[in-house]
Amino acid sequence: MSILYVLLTTFGVIFLESFLVALGNLRFLFLLNVSLFNKINWKHLLSLSVLSSLILDVIYHYVLGTNLLMVAVPLLIMMGISLAVPLENSLPGYSVKFVCIFLYYLFVAFVPNLILTGQGTVITGVMLGGMVLKAAISVLFCVAFDIVWSRLRKKEEGTKLRSL
């Protein structure tokens, strides 16, 4: 049954990713990974990330593994920082998420071109401003997701739905 959940979630992520990239160049796969970090079983999150990133590599005409690399590095940084700073619903947790999301958008700007052509991309001030804006919007999504998650789930058991 969990395989079915992962496959259905993967198709939903691909649809939302394509829609949000066309709408405002926002990336949904990484937002979902950041939002579900330490909330669901890591095996389910890993399988969702690998499958979705490989499909998105094909859609964006990247070398296979590029999206997975761009998702994994900021998540590993966030995992390392989470050992010292709690990532739960607090200002330090959301500031760590902001920095990791900003790093992800920075990687999106130069890693695919670096892998494909071997040349870096010039990062301008306008691009940095856009990355900060997209990271702020993404953190607002994380806050909204955490609020909805806390209302739907029991505090002790994150996998069980709260009874009405």
Describe the protein.
This protein has 164 residues and is an all-alpha fold. It has six helices and no strands. Helix content is 74%, strand content 0%. The two termini are 24 Å apart.
Tell me the strand percentage band: under 5%
Distance between the termini: 24 Å
Low-confidence stretches: none
On the 0 to 100 scale, the average pLDDT is 88
Annotation field: number of helices: 6
Indicate the radius of gyration in whole angstroms.
16 Å
Shape descriptor reads globular
Helix content: over 70%
Number of domains: 1
Q: Given the helix and strand composition, which structural class is it?
A: mainly alpha
The biggest sheet, with number of strands, parallel, antiparallel or mixed sense and barrel status, is: none
Give the helices and strands as they follow along the chain: HHHHHH
Q: How many beta-strand segments?
A: 0
Protein name: Rod shape-determining protein MreD
Transmembrane segments: 6-32, 44-63, 69-87, 94-116, 122-145
Keywords: Membrane, Transmembrane, Transmembrane helix
